[in-house]
Amino acid sequence: MKAAYFENGKVHVGEMPEPVPGKGQALVRTHSCGLCASDVHFLHAGQNIIDLSRRLGGPYAALDFRRPFVPGHEFVGEVIDYGPDSRRTVRTGRKVTSMPVMRQGGAHKVIGYSHECPGGFGELMLLDEELMIEVPSGLDDDHAAMIEPLAVGLEHARRGNPAGSDAALVLGCGAIGLGVIVGLGLMGIAPIVAADFHPGRRELAIKAGAHVAVDPREVSPYAPLPDFGNRQVNLIYECVGQKGMLQRIIEAAPFDGRIVMGGYCMDEESLFVFAAQNKRLNIQFASGEEPQDMALALRSIADGRIDVTPWLGARVGLSGVGQTLSEMSGPLAPVRTVVDPRML
């Protein structure tokens, strides 16, 4: 099959072996796949991530960074076959997406970060039939590819156990931060304050449901909110993933505040525990989505409650993956570019 693949920190386009489905596995032809900032991070720091998994436990320990593998974990595709003795949970010819996890065969693999389970940057994928969810045939492929990143934000939002009395702050308005804003809005939380350096991202945050969007270099996101009875934020979502963010939040958070760590930082953090103790802060670490988040993300996009169109930039073929990944960190980059691996 044709694919864009990573090998020893470089992007290549070429032929890769076609995956063969086993019991409980579906063979899926990819239609669209989002390019994520985590793909860029893995491209440049993948060996460090693998080493951390081997030392501390994690799903990337079996990956060999020097061998080719096909990334892509935000995907939609068409079921074309199943492995022997499978339940065939979705009819062939139907569109599906899934959490990027393979549990069949007695192993736990992350789709797109495995030599055995290629991701959506290739023409063909293997999906766990127990985790697949059917996508309505009329839903645009690129919109369907946004289900997974939205689901991650929804998971982070609910990890904070938001209540009607909370005022929320979302730091960082990339795909995950925008998903948190969406999730908070679906739960009726107000006000929601968004903070990001880039005006385009702040505009997207307002479209996603934030009530206030600020540049934290100019306005403190922790300041009283005149339009909301001078309330101050007490539920803070970190969606940046930079070293030092947690300590800065601890210093700014209010007494009895709650912090949800959603940004992935691979560096060791240094913090003053007494500062958090003095304020009786609660720090919750969020992770990836669960099936309930995927289902809610699908429903919210399919029924029009959430419009992910502003997230989308260009659609590229396999030959555009490398260039797109190199430009993703720029201030004018779209939230998501998608690749159609059927196009070169």
Protein described:
The chain is α/β, with parallel strands linked by helices. The chain has two domains: 177 residues, Alpha-Beta Complex (Quinone Oxidoreductase, Chain A, domain 1), CATH 3.90.180.10; 133 residues, NAD(P)-binding Rossmann-like Domain (Rossmann fold, 3-Layer(aba) Sandwich), CATH 3.40.50. Helices cover 26% and strands 23% of the residues. The chain contains nine helices and 17 strands. Strands 3, 4, 5, 8, 9, 16 and 17 form a seven-stranded mixed β-sheet that branches. Strands 12-11-10-13-14-15 form a six-stranded parallel β-sheet, with helices on both faces. Strand 10, helix 4 and strand 11 form a beta-alpha-beta unit. Helix 3 crosses helix 4 and helix 3 packs across helix 8. It is globular and about 60 Å long.
Characteristic terms for this protein:
6-stranded parallel β-sheet, globular, 344 residues, alpha/beta, Rossmann fold, 23% strand
Superfamily at the CATH H level of the largest domain? Answer: Medium-chain alcohol dehydrogenases, catalytic domain
Shape estimate:
globular
The structural class is alpha/beta
Number of strands: 17
Radius of gyration using CA atoms only = 20 Å
What is the topological layout?
Layout: E1 2-7, E2 10-15, E3 25-34, H1 37-56, E4 75-82, E5 95-98, E6 101-102, E7 109-110, E8 124-128, E9 132-135, H2 141-144, H3 147-159, E10 168-171, H4 175-186, E11 192-195, H5 199-208, E12 212-214, E13 235-238, H6 245-252, E14 258-261, H7 273-278, E15 282-285, H8 291-302, E16 312-316, H9 321-326, E17 336-339
Parallel strand pairs: 10-11, 10-13, 11-12, 13-14, 14-15, 16-17
Antiparallel strand pairs: 1-2, 3-4, 3-8, 3-17, 4-5, 5-9, 6-7
